[in-house]
């Protein structure tokens, strides 16, 4: 799938600048346009539910503080976008949207007609806000979500030279492969990895290899032992050992409740993989 429109989710924090630098590099390399979205909820939207309790508990000043913080974060996000856009190729520069309302409404309105949603990847210690944002982006847009790690000091090339693609024959894994085609075609090395339990044999990889070959992507098949590890940890460690720049995988294939309570392969991969992730629901 050709990448032509990318959407970066901004937070109004210091993380926006390095995210935008790398996102513009990816967009420029693939001839895509990068738009940016900042979402802030109107603090006063809860007033109807509390009614006279606002006056009793002095909530007006708190709401004003929340509104001010939201406005400041929106201005910071816009400033970061304009600064990064000034250093990017003109054709890669899209627009900035400051959406006031619910994140689900913002993502459905602005994310469903993009090719890739881009956001900062949660760190190894876990970042619940980023993890929840990634989950919301996956579920509300139905688009691949590219999770970029904190940028290094070197100039961003926008290329994922080494890619590890997880394959288990599921719908999520198939969508992930299809959503990653532009990145796979641009890579130097692509490994299609099937993780099995000890003693189990798998012939799933051949179908993925043949499909990718039709799209001009030469992939190496690998079968790895799970070794008792949680699936997300196993995939992340395989990608890390391969020094991959990108891990492609299906995400949130189990129920939302199980993902929320048990963590799930997606959350574990987010936390343990050192590289970027392209995840598709």
From TrEMBL:
Membrane-spanning parts: none
UspA domain: residues covered: 161-280
Pfam family of the protein (one): Usp
UniProt-listed InterPro entries: Universal_stress_UspA, UspA
Family (UniProt): Belongs to the universal stress protein A family.
Protein name: UspA domain-containing protein
Species of origin: Marinicauda salina
């Amino acid at each position: 799938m050709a990448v032509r429109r990318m959407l970066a989710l901004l937070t109004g924090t210091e993380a926006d600048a390095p995210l935008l630098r790398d996102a513009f590099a990816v967009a420029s390399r693939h001839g895509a346009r990068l738009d940016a979205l900042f979402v802030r909820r109107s603090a006063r939207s809860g007033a109807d539910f509390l009614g006279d309790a606002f006056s009793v508990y002095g909530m007006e000043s708190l709401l004003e503080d929340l509104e001010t913080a939201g406005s400041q974060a929106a201005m910071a996000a816009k400033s970061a976008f304009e600064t990064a856009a000034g250093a990017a190729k003109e054709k890669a520069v899209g627009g900035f949207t400051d959406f006031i309302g619910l994140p689900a409404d913002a993502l459905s309105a602005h994310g469903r007609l993009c090719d890739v949603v881009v956001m900062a990847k949660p760190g190894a210690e876990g970042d619940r806000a980023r993890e929840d944002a990634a989950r919301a982006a996956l579920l509300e847009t139905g688009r691949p979500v590219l999770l970029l790690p904190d940028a290094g000091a070197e100039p961003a090339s926008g290329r994922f030279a080494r890619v590890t693609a997880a394959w288990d024959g599921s719908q999520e894994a198939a969508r992930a492969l299809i959503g990653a085609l532009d990145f796979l075609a641009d890579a130097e090395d692509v490994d299609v990895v099937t993780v099995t339990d000890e003693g189990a044999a798998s012939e799933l990889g051949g179908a993925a290899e043949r499909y990718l070959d039709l799209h001009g992507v030469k992939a190496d098949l690998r079968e790895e032992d799970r070794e008792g590890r949680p699936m997300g940890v196993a995939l992340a460690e395989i990608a890390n050992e391969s020094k991959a720049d990108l891990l492609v995988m299906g995400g949130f294939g189990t129920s939302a409740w199980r993902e929320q309570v048990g963590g799930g392969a997606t959350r574990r991969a987010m936390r343990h993989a050192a590289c970027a992730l392209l995840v598709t629901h």
